[in-house]
Give the backbone structure.
Amino acid sequence: MPDITITSKDLEDPRLDELIALEKSLQRQGDGAYLKDIKTPFYLNPMFYYCVAGTVLAFLAWLINEPMINENYDRHTPEAIDVVAGFLLFMLTAGFIGLGLGMTYGIANHNLRQSVYCSAVGFGVGLIVAIPLSFLANIVFGILTQIVFIVNEVKPDQSARITVHDVRGMAFALLLSGRGLAWAIVAPCAGMGLGVALRSRKVLTVGLVGALVGGGLGGLFFDPVDRFLNAPGEDGWLSRLVGITTIGLLVGLFTGYFENLSRISWLQMIKGPLAGKQFNLYKSPMILGSSPKADIYLFKDPDVDVRHASITAVGAKFMLKDLGSRSGIFVNGNKVDKKILQKGDVVTVGTTVLKFDEKEKR
């Protein structure tokens, strides 16, 4: 076999980088390990990390608010609980859960900038929107409480001395419904922040629905805990603790559940630092790059440019497009400038390998 001579002119040929990148891509695609389906680790499933974040941040909201309730609590006149503390309970819970959802979204993407920004927006939106919703929730709960008194045949002068232990049957069911409805009114603002931060109507809708369902179900826990775990006349700190943390848990759980349920098209990282993670294509266009500002942040990959590629919705399809990157983009081993993605396509960006997937169309 004759010797192969490579001159300095050959090394300066601009096509050389393209050939090397193509060879690397073909080698990657030829490795069957990267083409096998990879299960998403449980800690990268939004149902898990939203659930943990909602629970922990709801607990912090309870921890901050509880001393204010205790300081104003009078066992003989429960209605003397400071109204401000009652409103703060709604507002802090919504704000802190919104902070937690935004923070963990960025953490799951290993994106500190995104985490700080989304958590700040989540807290601000949750806190501010909760102000008018708290008034509405208190009005609704107040009306249903009066109905409870009527059903329970409580006289107006006795209402201040009535506790959850005195409410029975249909009246107790109405009390549960009132509490659940009040939290269902307030909780959605906890799920709004992430959608606002990402400027995505789809994420906003998912957050609203998830928080509404989680808040409504979580609100049902307050009174049963108070009735069965607290003695008559005792402060209701335990019921508030269980109720608020349960709301945080369920808001996170259902927000993650509806996020997974609403997913239509996504990229799953097959090779890279977040192998197994699925990136929902929730808006158009979405930028892939090494910048923390990118929608799909591909870090620890020196071959990925700041703005490497984009994915744009074209009707019911998605088009991958090179944004003038140094190393280019490859689909199934072939270098492309742009390409309509098909289910199962393997996309190589730098040394990161992603697989395009979508729900089966009925």
The longest helix spans residues 112-151. Residues 26 and 333 are 5 Å apart (CA to CA). The longest strand covers residues 265-271.
